[in-house]
Design brief:
Shape: globular
Number of strands: 0
Mean pLDDT: 89
Low-confidence stretches: none
Helix content: over 70%
Structural class: mainly alpha
Largest sheet: none
Number of helices: 13
Strand content: under 5%
Length: 292
């Protein structure tokens, strides 16, 4: 299989699309799994790194479709709240209006908070992406990050935190910022963007369902920026045949991710994240044992 699957094409696109869809929103690292699968199948190098990031577009679209009603409500109500804020500024002054707005205009500040949460990883990723792809896109890094991440999940679950944020509209800008800082850890392959944001959100007082759903929403600006940047940068290296295969992989990732999103939200309302911690540690240990 390794010899037959080391060239980018439809067959490999389907495999990687399934892996991306299954792992993007679970706290186990989609990029890490794509690196491991690529290494096993002999699909490595610059093209593999580009595919691992670009194929995420399918998972992004799954979030947009699954959360379309909430997204529409947030944006439409935020427009109304923005108009109210502007009117208040003219009568009470900017500082007083902003202070009142943060408690009254939850939809507007939720979206502002998403942008604030997006910035730390965006800036750090822009500055370090080439070094990360050159030095960290390998199975050993993925395995070590997976084990460490599993230990962190176990530690946070052991804290038995008492959540105070049970709805997305309650997520303030300060909370969003610290979740965004936590997301920076996910720049390391194997750390998991979903895992980092969910753990960061739990430590900031969200319950599991809200933390998980917030990770979905934060994925939108984060993955759109990363995927868009990589697609623009790699456009010249992809032939029309390569792009067709990538499109197929994105379609597969879309449908698989849609099912995972629904299932994961149901799961976290009833269970802890310990099963993912055990999986991460076992998977990382196995990779370190197999790969010298």
């Amino acid at each position: 299989m390794r010899a037959a699957m080391n060239v980018w094409g439809p067959e490999l696109a389907v495999i990687l699309g399934i892996v991306e869809g299954l792992t993007e929103f679970l706290p186990i690292s989609s990029t890490g799994h794509l690196i491991l699968i690529g290494h096993w199948l002999g699909f490595t190098g610059e093209t593999a790194a580009s595919v691992a990031i670009s194929i995420q577009l399918g998972a992004i679209l799954a979030v947009v479709v699954y959360e379309r009603q909430k997204l529409s409500a947030f944006f439409s109500q935020a427009l109304t709240e923005q108009a109210s804020l502007r009117a208040s500024c003219g009568t009470t002054g900017w500082m007083d209006a902003l202070t009142q707005s943060m408690t009254q205009h939850r939809n507007l500040w939720f979206l502002i908070g998403l942008f604030v949460a997006f910035l730390p990883a965006a800036v750090l990723g822009l500055l370090s992406h080439h070094w990360i792809e050159t030095h960290l896109f390998n199975p050993r890094t993925v395995a070590i990050a997976s084990i460490i991440g599993g230990g962190i999940i176990m530690g946070v679950e052991a804290l038995k935190l008492n959540p105070r944020v049970t709805q997305l509209g309650q997520v303030g800008v300060r909370t969003a910022f610290w979740v965004g800082v936590a997301q920076c850890v996910a720049l390391i392959p194997g750390a998991s963007r979903s895992g980092a944001t969910i753990i960061g959100a739990l430590l900031q007082g969200m319950d599991r369902k809200t933390a998980t759903e917030y990770s979905f929403f934060l994925a939108l600006p984060t993955l759109i920026a990363a995927t868009g940047y990589k697609l623009l940068k790699s456009a010249a290296t992809f032939s029309s045949h390569d792009l067709m295969a990538l499109g197929l992989g994105m379609i597969v990732a879309f449908f698989v991710a849609w099912a995972v999103i629904a299932g994961f939200l149901t799961f976290v309302q009833r269970h802890s994240l310990m099963v993912f911690a055990y999986y991460r540690i076992a998977m990382g240990a196995l990779v370190l044992w197999i790969i010298p």
